[in-house]
Amino acid sequence: MAKSSITYNWGDDYLHITLGNRTEKRILALYVAEFIVTISMATIFLVQSFPLFKNPLHFLGAMGASLLYFLAARRFLNRMFFSEQLHLDDKYLTLIRKTLFSKQLRQYSWQSVGILHYTGKAPKTDHPLKGHSFDYFGFETREHLIQSLHHEGNLFFNTREGRVYFASGVYSWDAEDMVQMMRLFIGNALQLGPEWEQMLREQEIGDN
Predict the structure, then answer these.
(1) Most exposed of 16, 68, 187, 199 (fewest Cβ within 10 Å)?
(2) Number of folded domains that form the chain
(3) Is residue 111 part of a domain?
(4) Is 52 a domain residue?
(5) Residue 6 domain flag
(6) Which is nearest to 22 in space by CA: 192, 174, 199?
(7) What percent of the chain has a predicted confidence (pLDDT) above 70?
(8) Cα gap 105→95, rounded to integer Å
(9) 166, 155 in Cβ contact below 8 A?
(10) Is 158 contained in some domain?
(11) Residues spanned by the domain of 44
């Protein structure tokens, strides 16, 4: 699934930003592999359940297989059709996360939105085998993959309830554009962390 470009929809009193699904290809491949393994297991259970009514355990096995099919399909489709959106107006920043079967909205007043930070990939201690030719099992690659799986977002701000992450898969070059658009709309109500000054300066140099 190719990453779609970030789109901006300007209204008279709002800015709506669509981030889409920006999951890395290797993570998508892992989701596909997980789906195939789960469906294969469910198929084995189902085949072993025939004839269904010869034994009550056969019927229960078939029900379990059906449940596995359902859960695997739901989990897979939710991941494939996941998308993020931001909605800004003069009072609130609304974070919207959609899947095929659900929609989650989290709304924050600008007074409660703390300083916006860009974190990118969280720092990780290198595996002891990194760079060694005898890392045959790919421990370093595996740790990076696990980190990506549990990554909630590349931007965050702090509220009284804790840290809020969003913009999963949005990296520095897109984040810089997005923040500039947000500041055009809301002005100084959007406070930026010190890391943005260097990032935006580098972007201006690159544009020139």
Answers:
(1) 187
(2) 1
(3) no
(4) yes
(5) no
(6) 174
(7) 77
(8) 6
(9) yes
(10) no
(11) 30-79
